[in-house]
Amino acid sequence: MVPDVGRASDGANRVLKKRKCNVDDVFLKHKTRKEPTLVDFANGRPMDTLCVTLHQNTSNDIRRQRRRALTATAQNQHYGGTSFGGDAFRGSSTKTFLGVLDKDTGKMKLFEMSNYCLRPLRQSSHLEALKGGIETHSRSYLEKQEAIAEAFGSKKARQAVSRRKQFQVDTETMSGAVSQAFSKTEVDPEVVEAGWGDGRAEALQSILPPCDREADCVEDVYKLEDIAPDYFLAHLQESAEEFLETRYPDSSFSLLVIELLSVAKEEQDETKRLRLCCLSLYIQHLLFFLRLKGHELNDNKVMKDCPYMIRKHIFRNYTEGKHRRVRSKKAEDQVMCLLLVLAFIVNKYQLSLKVLLQSVPLNRDRLQLMMKLIGATFRTSSQDFILKLPLTQVSQHLPVIGRRTKTKGRR
After folding, report:
1. Contact predicate 329/195, CB 8 Å
2. In sequence order, which residues have a C-beta less than 8 Å from that of residue 168 and are 6 or more positions away?
3. Strands 51-56 and 78-82
4. Residue 249: left (phi > 0), alpha (psi -120 to 50), or beta?
5. Is 323 left (phi over 0), alpha (psi -120 to 50) or beta?
6. Torsion angle in degrees (nearest 10) through CA of 96, 101, 107, 112
7. What is the pTM for the complete model shown?
8. Is residue 343 predicted with pLDDT exceeding 90?
9. What percent of the chain lies above the pLDDT cut of 70?
10. CA dihedral 333, 336, 342, 347 (to 10 degrees)
11. Quick one: pLDDT band at residue 197, thresholds 50, 70, 90?
12. What does the alpha-carbon distance between residue 22 and residue 101 come to, in Å, rounded to a whole number?
């Protein structure tokens, strides 16, 4: 039952009249049809006649298909607003419905509405960005202060702004140059071996999962049946089925795992979809293991959400000690390479640098070094890693690392 609010006018006074009605049907928003729209103008209602256009995101990504942009064009002004991002309507987190009452039957149909807050657009580039479904970001406080100083500031203030712009470094260009320089350098094995222990160091390949660098296709370089066979992933099947049906990732899940779960859900084949979801959950457990501190490794209550056999496998293979568990630097590198390889397999051998930096406990240099060991190539144009043939070549042997002897210096 929905209260129907009507208005009865008696001269200048208006009295609200309430009555109840039955809801016949509810129509939610769908990408194949247009819904009613509630528009609010940030600078007040425009006086000119508007030509309004609704733009739909046509991406294959399911999460972005509901993103829409609304543009309005007047005689001398353009307005724009989006249903996502910072420009979204303040009440976009709540759902608004439009009720249409049939007076003959006394039943009402509810239509879900979209809310937009239209703001004036000063530059045509902003309008084109809205039409392409691209989220526009407002300028920072410093940029606004510089614009005010250039327009209304004193001569000294304008000179200061000019000097700052003259010596400003383009971070994107610098980042691309550093990445390109790094891709041309050789891998220093001593950097990888730092903290692995004393004695003769093992080969670089020892931190990688089973690998065939002479394979004819990229799928055979790291075979899933050698890394995580089906009987091993079967321990995660029950949790994977929950995520595929009703359960959603909580705040403890990293951004990488959330994206991998979304990729798994888009798989058409049911067996592959379940296997990819199990791999995503396995990656989440490996990331949680890497974030454990030293004293937490000996807590039997840690990793309670992880199945017993999976937890037993992780602690048995990547920790040392019977009475007190210790995780070496080499074991951390092994786990990191393992989860990166599994992430490549789930995401079709392509991983975003930005997502990885937000998800894995590594800085950019260390991450690029690990990727080079795996055989991945970094693309500066798209800022992502791709695993393809031929693999990136690395040194096959490591130098001998002996014990350092302390020598007494002269005072």
Report:
1. yes
2. none
3. unpaired
4. beta
5. alpha
6. -20
7. 0.51
8. yes
9. 74
10. -130
11. very low
12. 9
329 has pLDDT over 70? yes
**Among candidates 353, 350, 347, which has minimal Cα distance to 172?**
353
Asked if residues 74 and 48 have their Cβ atoms less than 8 Å apart, the reply is yes
Which residue type is seen at 41? Answer: F
Confidence category of residue 175, pLDDT binned at 50, 70, 90 = low
Token readout for 293 is: 């501190």
The pLDDT tens digits for 250-271 are 888 888 998 998 888 888 888 8
Average of per-residue pLDDT across 32-43:
78
Answer for the pair 62, 25: CB distance below 8 angstroms, yes or no. no
Distance in angstroms (rounded) separating the CA atoms of residues 382 and 392: 18
DSSP 8-state code for residue 186: P
Residue 294: which residues within 8 A CB-CB, separation 6 or more?
A: 326, 327
Q: DSSP string spanning 288-329? A: HHHT--TGGGG-TTSSTTS-HHHHHHHHHHH-B-SSS-B--H
